[in-house]
Design goal:
By secondary structure, this protein is of the alpha/beta class. Helix content is 53%, strand content 18%. It has nine helices and twelve strands. The strands form three sheets. A five-stranded parallel sheet has the order 2-1-3-4-5, sandwiched between helices. The chain has a five-stranded mixed sheet with strand order 7-9-10-12-11. A two-stranded antiparallel sheet has the order 6-8. Strand 3, helix 3 and strand 4 form a beta-alpha-beta unit. Helix 5 packs antiparallel against helix 6, helix 6 packs parallel to helix 9 and helix 7 crosses helix 8. The mean pLDDT is 82.
Length: 376
């Protein structure tokens, strides 16, 4: 049951309104002065105030202003001397309705019901908004804390990777060195084929272990290196990498197509590593084709530059596209080619450090294109 407070200095009107509104299922409190009105408002949870404008010691408007500052309750003003100016001023200061005497109870009932319903709906909306804001603040706080923990763990993981890789480097080198000494001591040339194979497998294994350790160290150092931000001449970087790969692999017949490439902002050491890994992979997986071709190009998309490294090599099934950027992952079709499965994981990490993305499109036996984006 909604509770009404009626403030009017005319006892007859108070009695009439209480009788009629009680029949309409309201709980009605009636007072004739400011002091009694304040006492009711302090002790009872009132849903709406009906306030007469003409009061003996204070105007209804002044009384409304006092109530409005202290209590969050809708107020309807009643008056026998209506004024457009007064109505506008009243509504402008937060009054919900203005009604003229003599009162039509049906009209008054409708306006009271509308005011209370609107006020309750408004309060529910405010409460829901407060709860949503509180939940959002809590979620943001939780996310911030988790991000801090994740950054710390990533830093610890990088430090652990660097430490382990560094500690493994010496034993791996020792294995390779002592295998060489052992071969010479045992005169491997005069040994049977099976023993020669054993030594070959051990040498290849230690060589691969050394390579993996070196790449793990490079991966761990990425966090520290990504601080030297500068303008990078990607066209010059790519041509230097292509020259280096051609010099290292003189037997390859790869044809390179280098489209004009834009300058970008980033860490040059890391961006060179991205291009080197992608171009080297393109050359490696296409050089057995009769006419191997590697194409390096770029496009502008929205507010980012997208680089593409395309080859006409062995390709792969796109089912495995996402896994290709995970640590140590190598596809069956790539097993006859040298590699550790760390290079593309490093590419992904570096590109993410530069606020970009990396992805791949491939058609098995036909072609592969690696893409990565950098904000322009």
């Amino acid at each position: 049951m909604n509770k009404l407070l009626i403030v009017d200095d005319q006892i007859g009107i108070l009695q009439m309104l209480k009788r009629r509104l009680t029949k309409l299922n309201y709980e009605v409190f009636t007072v004739s002065n400011q002091e009694d009105a304040t006492q009711v408002l302090e002790t009872t949870e009132i849903d709406l105030v009906l306030l007469d404008y003409m009061m003996p010691q204070i105007t209804g408007f002044d009384l409304f202003m006092i109530f409005h500052e202290k209590y969050d309750i809708p107020v309807i003003m009643m008056t026998a001397h209506s004024s457009i100016h007064l109505a506008i001023e009243f509504m402008k200061n937060g009054g919900v309705d203005f009604i003229e005497k003599p009162l039509d109870i049906d009209v008054l009932h409708m306006r009271i019901d509308r005011a209370i319903t609107s006020e309750k709906a408004f309060k529910r909306e405010c409460l829901a908004k407060e709860k949503a804001e509180s939940a959002l603040k809590l979620a943001n706080k939780t996310l911030t804390e988790r991000t801090k923990v994740l950054k710390l763990k990533n830093k610890e993981l990088d430090a652990f990777t660097a430490a382990i890789s560094h500690d493994l480097r010496a034993p791996a080198r020792n294995i390779h060195s002592f295998i060489g000494l052992l071969k010479r001591r045992l005169d491997i040339i005069n040994q049977d084929k099976e023993i020669q194979d054993f030594f070959h497998f051990i040498e290849q294994g230690s060589k691969k272990m050394n390579t993996m350790i070196s790449e793990l160290l490079e991966l761990a150092k990425t966090e520290e290196l990504n601080k030297n931000v500068q303008l990078i001449d990607t066209d010059g970087v790519v041509r230097k990498i292509v020259d280096s790969i051609c010099t290292t692999n003189p037997d390859y017949r790869t044809q390179f197509s280098i489209k004009p490439l834009p300058n970008i902002i980033g860490d040059q050491v890391l961006i060179e590593q991205v291009f080197y890994n992608l171009i080297e992979n393109a050359v490696k997986y296409s050089h057995l084709k009769p006419e191997p071709v590697v194409e390096i190009s770029s496009t502008m998309e929205d507010e980012r530059i997208v680089f593409a490294v395309k080859d006409n090599g062995i390709g792969f099934d796109m089912v495995y596209a996402e896994r290709l950027f995970d640590m140590f992952v190598r596809l069956d079709a790539q097993s006859k080619f040298e590699g550790t499965g760390i290079g593309l994981a490093n590419v992904k990490k570096i590109v993410k450090h530069h606020k970009g993305e990396v992805w791949v499109l491939s058609k098995e036996g036909v072609e592969t294109t690696f893409y990565f984006s950098i904000p322009s």
